[in-house]
Amino acid sequence: MGEKRTDLLRGTLDLLVLKALSLEPLHGVAISRRITQITKGAFQVSFGSLFPSLHRMEERGWVEAQWRSSDNNRRAKYYRLTSAGRAQLKAEERQWNQMVKIMTAAVQSS
Amino acid sequence: MPKRILSLFRNLFHKRAVERELNDELRSSLEILTQEKMKQGLSQSEARRESLIELGGVEQVKEEVRAVRAGRILEDFARDIRFAFRTLAKSPSFTVVAVLTLALGIGANTAIFSMVNGIMLSALPYRQSQQLYAVNETVPQFAHLTPWGPYFPVNAGNFAQWKGHCPAFSAMALIWPATFNMAGHGIPRQVKGLMVSADFFSLMGIRPFVGRAFLPQENQVGRDHEIVLTAQFWRQAFNSDPRIIGQTIRLDDVPYTVVGIMPESFRFPELPPMINYAPQFFKPIGFKPWMLWSGIGGFNFEAIARLKQGTTPQQALAQLDFIEARIARKGDARRHIRPGAADLRATLRPLKTVMIGSAQRALLMLMVAAGLILLIICINLANLMLVRNAARAHEVAVRSALGATAKRLLRQFFAEGLILAMAGAGFGLLLAILGLRLLVRYAPLDIPRVADIRIGPLVLLFTISISTLTALLLALLPALRLVKTQPVEALKSAGPAMSGSHQSARLRSGLVVGQIALCCVLLAGALLLIESLRHVAHANQWMEQQHVLAAELSLPPRETSTNAQTDHFLSNVLARVRAIPGVRDAGFTSLLPLRGPGYADDIDVREDPPPPGKRELGQISFVSSGYFQAVGIPLVRGRLLSESDRGKDVVVISESIVRRCLHGRNPIGMHLLWGADNNPKPREIIGEVADVRTASDQSSTLTVYVPIWTYNQTNDTLVVRTAFNPSAAANSIAHAVWSVDPEVAIPRERTLATVVSASEAIRRYETFLGTMFAAFALLLAAVGLYGVVSYLVSQRTHEIGIRMALGAQRSDVLGMVLREGIKLALFGVVIGVVVALGVTRFLSNLLYGVKPTDPLTFVAVSMLLTGVALLACWIPARQAAKVDPMVALRHE
Q: Are residues B25 and A72, on separate chains, in Cβ contact within 8 Å?
């Protein structure tokens, strides 16, 4: 896998994770499911990418983790957006929209 | 990002908790997934299997998470270092050799850099020191006649004309060293002063920290009786007593008032005749008429000037030269210099440049040499690491096949290099601190700014930088080669896979040959120096030195105003010293043997005059009766000086004069003339004595001994021969002198053995340095040869195995490897001997009693080097002979 593609994916992944968490705190598996849901099945995030992304964002202070019981009474690590995370989500959304605009214009030119 | 730093600490110091949490998280995720799948109707084991697949392996996910954690790089680095420690500990002999040579290399670089830094790089400790310049005068027509070359000291009369007429300078000052006798504070002593013009301190931009500096009017004769003390002298002589300000001190019988004390940090400008002079006080120059004499004998002072901001040195020099030209046009009636007969010009050089002077080139050369040595050390060690890693090629290949990246491997080598370099730097720093103390403190050489040489922050930074560079070199050289190795090839052939290209093998051999040749040259030089030292020490054994004490006396001016007065004083001292129990003989001399050249003049014997223009130069030594007996110069013919010779014109001469001027004829009764041009009185030769030398390195000097009562001078040496340990008599001798005049200073009182030893000190120092360099070169050459031969062996293990399987004996293998190494060594020795034969003649003025091409020395050098080379090859050769053919072949 080329490194550039990973980078692109990683940036996208962070945005998707932040977006998935924007409504309510979720645990890892639930985040994965939510992403599949909001991308209408287009993205199936592997846990090998999701967990590193979560831990990196936790170290950056974008998300906070908390252990609590899940719906069916299992302890799980729930991630919640912090205010820094919310700001980051806004920034990344803006960046993404801009990028889409630029890329669309670029592709449609000629 | 404080949050990230917190995480870093957590990751590093609470690693177990972090790992546990990760484990829990993955476990709970796995359970959630399993439950989800069971709800969809899968059996528990099925659901668990599917979940594991979806998760992608617990350990793999963990590894992915670890890879993004803060502090990952540090952790990896720590692991690399731990691993490197383990590998180094496995081969202690390599590690010791590597650390030792690196310590020597880095130590030498650090020591020399701290000298370069202290002497050359750091600014002079004066306000805006880059504006300070040394001014000299020059008369191109006379430049070749003077000991100063084109840079004459300054004439005070000319200086007076510059002052106030050169707007390019904001200030100018003259300085001049002079010694005085100080009485009235404990025992009388000789003290060193610096005569300065009054604005010296304001020129340098430093004020006394107690009291005041000099006033302009204090440069007039009669008003120049104020002094300023250095902090060091104030501490030593006056116990840092602040009440000394305003008190008087008697110097040469004249009272001086202490008006100020300089701060401890003040360093006086060490212009060349005053390097290491270390004055104890400053006194205004009272300009007497003779000081202003404009003849060539009147050029006595060193001048310092401060350039105004925004003025160029060229403008300043033009202003000076304008005045100089005017002075030269007027000529000098008193010296019969016709107007315009001689050019007079000024020179202007930055003060720092002049202070550093000749040290600069030597320092830069040393720095380059030390850098080259470190480079050679790195290449040698890289070779050795390559050999060690040749054995590891298989391991490396396996690791890179398993996915270790080139970057990872490089980091591994860097860690090893870093450990070696840092250990080397640590020991090297210790060596540098010790070495500097020895090199600088005990150096009998003139090194300027000694007080500024120390291991400061900049030097430490330098050491760290060169150590890191060393580590990089040690890592890059072998790693690049290994990384280039194709894993597949290495795995296939199983043995050491990299056969270094032909070219690089030749380069390695060439380097070793070069090192051996260089070592040969250095060894030859060192051995020649050692041999010379032996000859010098032997030549100095003529005197029975242990029981002779030499006391240097500095007489106050009142004792030396006339010949008769001086004679009276010396006779009185001799009478009292001879009365001390245990004293066998005592006498005075103007200059001891081995204490350097003194007054010399033309000599000729009236009865056997030399052909015109062929006069010999002789040392004129003024001695009293008893001197020859006291110092131990044996009589050859005639008789020695006695008290009955008073009033007669007699001399005693050395054997060498008889040999040179009289071809061995009996000189007794003949007459000698010395300084014939202005002293044409013939003196009767009454005795001939054995030869002595003025310096350890000289052959015996033609010496004329003239009775001391015909002359008066302030510095004489009292020589006393005692029946017992002379140090015990030192005190009573000093008191005998003071009972005649309590204000005589005795700057030095030491045994003749010490005088002899001191005269050999510079030679001993040079020999020591030379020997150390040669020993170091020998060590380097041995390590280099060992590395290359080991490398050869490691590459040929397989071949050796085949040879042995085919019936080669161990001794055959041993011989084969030894031959390879010795071939290189002999090649180096031959080149080295040829070069050394050409080069050692540049040493000839350092040699004594041995020719620069002394055959015995060269044989010894060749044998020593070949022996060491044999030893260096023996170790890998024995390893080669120990190769088990079965193992070597099965490895295939």
A: no
